[in-house]
Structure formats: structure tokens, C-alpha cells
Design goal:
By secondary structure, this protein is α/β, with parallel strands linked by helices. Helix content is 50%, strand content 6%. It has a five-stranded parallel β-sheet, sandwiched between helices. It starts with a strand and ends with a helix. The structure holds flavin-adenine dinucleotide (FAD).
């Protein structure tokens, strides 16, 4: 009897892995042949940060399964078919995916496998509730967060299950490029973010014990370790959200953690039911909005300054440097940096979203692109366009000590709290001068007016009121 193939993707764990449990339950004496199929195309596009985290998580999973994980490198849909065929397997099991790319790949994989008489069985999801399962009483998909959140609480999401007992078949495939990637030293230090199941669980308990009670407030202060930093582990399925939700319930303040986790489900269900709105304006009235032409020298210079963390706005620059240096950015600062690109620099949200996706360890097309659209005004439930974040006031309010800025923009570390949020106010000579830090590239007050002018033009052009 041939083994059952378990195809790991965004579920790099054994605990509460229901696809793996399913594979184990139908496997006979030849056990479960587990594979991870690298996509050469995605590997070429991903930042060293993301690749390093993925490799770290895969090494850990491979150890957990007794060094029996198979690895291919090329075209996943085709490679998994070849692998299953070579073992004469008749079933491939995997966790269902909901991103536009994941769904396309699975449709193709299903067709390629079917040509060889092999079934692709998809189940469970990387979410508390599979996208599309919860509908409004009208039968429509949810488009507003709070009713969705209430519906999730009412529905419940089940308890996490222990790792299933699995007999893993010996390894039969380990492509040379996969070996090269997995055996080389990591190109980027990702040790701040747990990439093994054990480390993720440890971080969860540590976070809930130390920070859940104050999470509601502290989660907005980027200078604190006030959030879980489990987003990369969630992105790659090193931990399932059911585990976080179940554990959070035992801690005061855990309800707010659950609420944030439900945002992840919310965006996933919007993306899966409206895939066009992932890269296009969800609210198509915003199609009339006039962004700057990205090919002009001014737009290119501004975008470059934003990417490099040299806009002259310390909180924006700290965030962009945190992203480049660590592969992660604090949520509050993501909002400020995104707003700055869209509303102060007048650059299309899609350009910023793409840059974030390439660099964030937790880069997830649903959470990322709908958060960008939330900021830009074109998303579901979005902030109205006319609410323009003031980067100085946001900085004074949420990084009141200036310590976040000091950490990521060391050339400003000598400035007092009075000047650190707006170094252009510091005396141009003497110890409080802003040293090598760049001049601000735009004036927020002027660009805010310009953003509002364009907003009014869009509204007039579209003949709508809001
Ligand atoms: C412009 C922008 C882009 C973003 N891009 C991504 C992305 O690509 N991937 C991503 O996972 N999150 C994204 N977020 C949401 C949020 O910033 C991160 O999930 C959060 O910062 C992760 O840190 P944490 O694990 O410490 O979160 P915690 O505060 O500990 O929250 C726990 C978990 O809840 C989920 N969560 C928390 N806040 C949000 C939120 N606002 N939206 C969706 N899920 C949330 C995450 O899975 C997170 O790990 C983005 C937000 C903005 C404003």
C-alpha cells in the first residue's frame, strides 16, 4: 500500500494540524510522506528576511518529523504531482488556502494530480473560521468588522488539538536547490521571531502572562514589547490562531488579543470573497483619485526616501528602518508610515503594499492590502479619507518617550523629547542640532491640504457625498 502524501504549505507545524491528522487517519502501513515544495518563482521574489524565516521554520518542522520531510524546488503543483506519482500515492492532503495565488495554485495542482488519478483533499484553514463560512443573515459576506467579530464569538472556533500520531515515511526526495537553501547559513537574523512550534508556544505564554492585562493600551506604544510578535508564526502556520484564542481566554485582557486576531480572519474573508479588491480599490469610487505619476523624478525620489527611512519624519523613518532591519514593524507605525506614503507623498497604496509584502516576515496579502486600503480610505470599514494622520502628533502621542525613534534612528538619539519628534525645530547649531539626519522632504501641513484637495476633486468627479 502506498503512503498518503501530506503537502505542507502555510501550516508548518504538527500540533493542531488537522490536515496532517486527516492524512494520518487514512494512512496505511506505508505511513505519511510529507513534502514542502519550494516555489522557485516566489523564492526569487521574496526578501532575504522572509526567506530566512521560512527556512528557519522548515528546519524546525523537519526536525519535528524526524528528518523525514521531503523537499522539492521548482513548480509546486507539478512537483507534488511528480512526488505523489513516484510513490504511487493516490491521495494528497493539504490545508485549504484562501489567498488568490494559493487558490490558483491549488486549482492547477488539483487538475495536474487528477490527470494522474491522484486526489487532492483540502480541509481546515489557517484561520479561526474558514473564510466564507460565516455569512450575514441576508446571505451576503461581512463587510464591516464589528458585526463579523460578534458573529465569530457567537459561532465559536473549537479547541486546538494535540499533534496526531503519525508514521512518517522515509525521505525519498530532497532537490539540490532545496538542500542548498536549507543547509546554508541564514542570510538574515530572524531570532527575534519564534520559528519553531515550541518557541511560538513559549512566546505566547510569556506574552499573555506579561502583557495581556495591559495590551489594550500598550499595543499602541511601539517602544514597548507590548504585542505578541507572533504574526510571522501565524503567517507560516507555525502556530494556529485557535491555539492563541484558546490561551488568551485564560488571561485578563485576552479578549482584546482575540479581537485583533479576528481582524486577521476578517480581512481573509473579505479577500476571499472579493479577490478583485485585493490589488484594486475595494471601493471603486476611489478609482478616480489622482495619485502622483510614479515615473516622475519627484515621485521616485520621494518613494526612495520613504523606503530608505530618510523622509525627515522620525516616526516614519524609525518604522521603515525597523522593517528593513528586522522584517517587522509595529502596527501603529505601519499605519503612520502607510498614511504618510499615501497622503503626504501622494503615492498609490498599491506601491506601498507591495513593498511591505516583500519585506514583512508576516507579509500576508489579505491583512496587508486591506490594511493599506483601510488607511487609504478605499477599503472596507476604512478610515474616511479626510482623516489624515499627523506624523508629529502621532509620534508625540504614541512614542511619548521617543525611545522607539532613538532605537531605530540613532542619529537623533541625543535629542530631547521636545525635539525628537520634529527635529527641524531643534537649533541648527550646538548639541541639539539634528546632526546627519535628513531635512524633511515635504511639509505635512501643505501636503495634507493637497491630499484634501484631491479628495474633494475625486468626490466632485464621482458625484458622491460622504
Ligand atoms: C499598513 C499595514 C499593513 C499590515 N500588513 C500586515 C501583514 O502583511 N500581515 C499581518 O499579519 N498583519 C499586517 N498588518 C496588521 C498588524 O500590523 C500586524 O498583524 C501586527 O502588527 C502583528 O504584530 P503582533 O503579532 O505583535 O500583533 P498582536 O498585537 O500581538 O496581535 C495578535 C495577532 O492578531 C493579528 N492582528 C493584530 N492586529 C491586526 C490587524 N490590524 N489586522 C490584521 N490582523 C491583526 C495578527 O495575526 C497578530 O499576530 C498590517 C497593518 C497595517 C496598518
Amino acid at each position: 500500500m502506498a503512503p498518503v502524501v501530506m503537502w505542507f504549505r502555510r501550516d508548518l507545524r504538527v500540533r493542531d494540524n488537522r490536515a496532517l491528522a486527516r492524512a494520518a487517519s487514512i494512512a496505511g502501513e506505508d505511513g505519511v510522506a510529507a513534502i514542502f515544495a519550494f516555489s522557485a518563482q516566489l523564492m526569487a521574489k521574496s526578501s532575504p528576511q522572509r526567506v530566512s524565516y521560512l527556512l528557519d521554520a522548515l528546519r524546525s518542522l523537519n526536525l519535528t518529523v524526524g528528518d523525514r520531510l521531503n523537499f522539492s524546488y521548482g513548480d509546486p503543483a507539478r512537483d507534488v504531482g511528480d512526488f505523489a506519482s513516484s510513490l504511487e500515492a493516490s491521495i494528497v492532503v493539504a490545508t485549504r488556502e484562501f489567498s488568490p495565488l494559493g487558490r490558483q495554485r491549488d486549482l492547477r495542482a488539483k487538475a495536474l494530480l487528477a490527470e494522474r488519478g491522484i486526489a487532492l483533499e483540502l480541509g481546515d484553514s489557517p484561520y479561526l473560521i474558514p473564510p466564507g463560512k460565516l455569512l450575514r443573515s441576508s446571505g451576503d459576506h461581512y463587510r464591516v468588522f464589528t458585526p463579523f467579530y460578534k458573529a465569530v464569538l457567537a459561532q465559536g472556533f473549537g479547541e486546538p488539538r494535540p499533534a496526531p500520531a503519525v508514521e512518517f515515511a522515509p525521505r525519498s526526495r530532497f532537490d539540490a536547490l532545496a538542500q542548498e537553501a536549507l543547509l546554508a547559513p541564514l542570510r538574515f537574523d530572524v531570532s527575534q521571531f519564534p520559528a519553531s512550534e515550541e518557541a511560538a508556544r513559549h512566546r505566547l505564554v510569556e506574552f499573555l502572562s506579561a502583557s495581556a492585562a495591559s495590551y489594550r493600551v500598550d499595543r499602541n506604544d511601539p517602544s514597548l514589547e507590548g504585542t505578541s510578535r507572533l504574526s510571522p508564526a501565524l503567517r507560516f502556520g507555525v502556530i494556529h490562531p485557535r491555539e492563541i484564542a484558546a490561551a488568551a481566554g485564560d488571561f485578563p485582557g485576552g479578549d482584546e488579543v482575540l479581537r485583533q486576531l479576528v481582524w486577521r480572519d476578517f480581512f481573509a474573508q473579505v479577500a476571499s470573497s472579493a479577490p478583485r479588491g485585493v490589488w484594486e480599490n475595494f471601493d471603486t469610487r476611489y478609482d478616480l483619485f489622482e495619485f502622483d505619476d510614479p515615473s516622475t523624478a519627484q515621485a521616485r525620489d520621494r518613494l526612495d526616501a520613504w523606503k530608505q527611512g530618510s523622509t525627515g519624519y522620525p516616526i516614519v523613518d524609525a518604522g521603515m528602518r525597523q522593517l528593513r532591519n528586522t522584517g517587522w514593524m509595529h502596527n501603529r507605525v505601519r499605519m503612520i508610515a502607510a498614511s504618510f506614503l499615501v497622503k503626504d507623498l501622494h503615492i498609490h497604496w498599491r506601491i506601498g503594499a507591495k513593498f511591505f509584502l516583500e519585506h514583512l516576515l508576516d507579509g500576508d496579502v489579505a491583512s496587508n492590502n486591506f490594511s493599506w486600503q483601510w488607511v487609504a480610505g478605499s477599503g472596507t470599514d476604512a478610515v474616511p479619507y479626510f482623516r489624515v494622520f499627523n506624523p508629529v502628533l502621532q509620534s508625540k502621542r504614541f512614542d511619548a518617550t521617543g525611545n522607539y525613534i532613538r532605537r531605530f534612528v540613532p542619529e537623533l538619539a541625543h535629542l530631547s523629547n521636545r525635539f525628537i519628534h520634529e527635529p527641524w525645530e531643534a537649533p541648527s547649531q550646538g548639541p541639539l542640532a539634528a546632526s546627519s539626519y535628513p531635512e524633511r522632504i515635504v511639509r505635512h501641513d501643505l501636503e495634507r491640504e493637497e491630499a484634501l484637495r484631491r479628495y474633494a476633486t475625486m468626490k466632485r468627479g464621482g458625484g458622491w457625498e460622504r
